[in-house]
Design a protein that fits this description.
Helix content is 28%, strand content 32%. By secondary structure, the protein is an alpha+beta fold. A 5-stranded antiparallel beta sheet has the order 1-5-4-3-2, with helices on both faces.
Length: 117
């Protein structure tokens, strides 16, 4: 499904924050992705190559948090947060969107991009 992300899916930081807050908490789903021994910069670069854009990055309690946006060909935006603990090959992916039925396919795209590209 990751081939369906388009090049203009990068949100401005303030737009991302406003959109994230506007989407109900019930529309957020968390996943674990295991066996991913990469740095946050390596992960961000891989995803950018597939039109998943890192809007912001911060470090909280030793964890890197990447906030990302992507847009599907049908115009639907997908927002995400990745939690990366340096030295830990398991990352936490939180996906948030108003269109819940795209989440499983987006999750599969993240796994496919990060593990097989």
């Amino acid at each position: 499904m990751h081939v369906l992300f388009v090049e203009d899916g990068e949100m401005e930081k303030r737009t991302f924050l406003a959109t994230w807050k506007d989407i109900p908490q019930a529309n957020e789903i968390q996943y674990q992705i295991h066996d991913l021994p990469m740095t946050s910069d390596e992960i961000s670069g891989k995803l950018r190559g597939s039109n998943i854009f890192t809007v912001a990055k911060r470090n909280v309690d030793g964890q890197d948090l990447l906030y990302q946006s992507a847009k599907l060909t049908n115009g639907i935006f997908m927002l995400s947060e990745l939690k990366i603990q340096p030295g830990n090959p398991t990352i936490t992916l939180s996906l948030k969107t108003r269109t819940m039925d795209i989440i499983p396919g987006v999750y599969e795209s993240y796994v496919g991009i990060l593990k097989h590209h």
